[in-house]
Amino acid sequence: MAFLPVEEQLRIIRRGVVEIIPEEELVAKLERAVRTGKPLVVKLGCDPSRPDLHLGHAVVLRKLRQFQDLGHEAVLVIGDFTGMIGDPTGRNKTRPPLSLEETRRNGRTYLEQASKILDPARTRIVYNSEWLGSMTFADVIRLASKYTVARMLERDDFQQRYRAGEPIGIHELLYPLAQAQDSVVLRADVELGGTDQKFNLLVGRDIQREAGQEPQVCVLMPILEGTDGREKMSKSLDNYIGLTEPPEEMYGKVLSIPDHLIYRYFELATDVPEEQLPRLAEWAQSAPRDAKHQLAWTIVRLYHGSEAADRARAHFERLFVHRQAPEEVPEWRAPERRIGLVRLLREAGLSASNSEARRLIEQGGVRVGDHPVRDPDCILELTAPLLIRVGKRRFLRVLPPVTQPQERS
């Protein structure tokens, strides 16, 4: 097939990339692809340790889509086998083990979510249990003999745990080798990953050499900060924006990011043409509120379409600009006409416990009708439907109990 000139491909590939190791080898591989018409095999591995993908995962998925659009072969490796080991990257203790059934179940949702970014018809999907699960103990010994403990302990997270006296399981030392074996089996030309995956990707280069293959090029993407603006986007930190979240929720979460991340999100989480990025950087500085609304609309459009993005913007304006409730509000019928606000929040599912409900009320996070309520001992008299608002985006219409008709004497 016909490829774009190498320099044009490099310009697209370099967008948002932290490091290409080594770039000269990527150039050589691209030149060969142009000369022979044979696409590069570009690999991205995802361990399905959790069932949900978010914008942090999308950073590398979008880079894989760029390679795909350039005409190269995109290979998504679902790590149902390596997921049982658990990637030790960035961990200060051993991950809890998962079963193959759990990783496969999570992996099925990955495919559906990744298809929001990748072209499914042009994506090769593989499960690494296909080859790792069939390896014998002798095969594992041969693979382990190709790397030293000293080299493995060079990685920062292992060093820190070793010095702190935290246990390191032997199976964790095998993880980078298992990931490297994926590259050998697939004969990967390029592997994508976040900067935290640098060690694992470099091990892949070494093991490919040992197998007599040309080593892969490592393309490292930055780690996207979550909505708190500090920590890596993570579901466990509750600072994530999920790929399958409703448009209104996604829009609101994007608006909650700190202003200093506006340009970074435009660069890493959207498909805005590269030539527009300098103008967006200036806009983010001069009018961050307007720029953030455009960012939220752009991200929602990517995953839900333009009409949904328009509705999400209108929803936000209705709630926060005009102070109106959303068009559709869930309803809950109270069991009694007189009910404590704490009990209502817990039984209606707006808080997980009485203590959480009290904290929400005391912090001013609960409104009854148009009025904030800060008294956790508040008792409501339900003679008509009442609108409850918790936080910025959760609404509930509380209905009074059904009145039983009186028996005639």
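^ that was protein a. below is b, sequence first then the tokens
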Amino acid sequence: MATDFYTAALNCLAEPDPARKCALTQSVWSDLQTGQLKIRPEKHCTSLDAPGRPELPRLVAPRELPRRRLHSDAGRAALLHALAHIEFNAINLAWDAVCRFADMPEAYYRDWALVAAEEAYHFGLLRDRLQALGFAYGDLPAHNGLWEMALQTRHDVLLRMALVPRVLEARGLDVTPGMMERLREAGDPESVAILEIILRDEIGHVAIGSRWFDYSCAQRHLTPATTFRALLKEHLPGRVKGPFHRAAREQAGFSAEELDDLETLDRGVE
């Protein structure tokens, strides 16, 4: 058993079995809260470019994923499977944020350990709901876009905070209410209840990304809104798509200027 926080975080990242990864993650978060694990900067480790994951699901291009018609168990399972895969990747992303970037304040590492624990909880909720519908995580293909962006941003914590929590994960804030409405129409209140929990927590996760993006900008004497806009244009040209859930994004730390910029980019206006 790991005796320091960073080794424990790396063990979580390396674990391929989803159930074991979730259990380890919850244990590390609990031990960090009780003081059994300490955050010691001199113990900081390096991360993994290929985190632990099971053999299934099979990874494919996004266009190869099944259509999600929600008026059948199979259709709802396809949606929930995609969400479960996002949450599984999000566990790895949170632990990678811990292991990848040294010399951040202790609060940064605590924040991302909390995110990892909540993502593990979300994964468990979705896995159990899939089982209730007669499916298991791994039964359907999935894509690897979230982790691919983790690799593209591995050299710079400012870029990571800008493009992963504040772009890819923030997209969930925009689209989850619509998913919930479609599931209500399909007569699936159990899945709606899970998405309500996920949306609530994901606002907090994106807010953590915003907090440490702003911190990194301040360390470099950069203006957050101007920097965010420049990074989007450089790294995601033409890929910023609305509509945007402004109220949720405001709760998650987006300024009015940043939201206006997103809507401008969505319209293709420079």
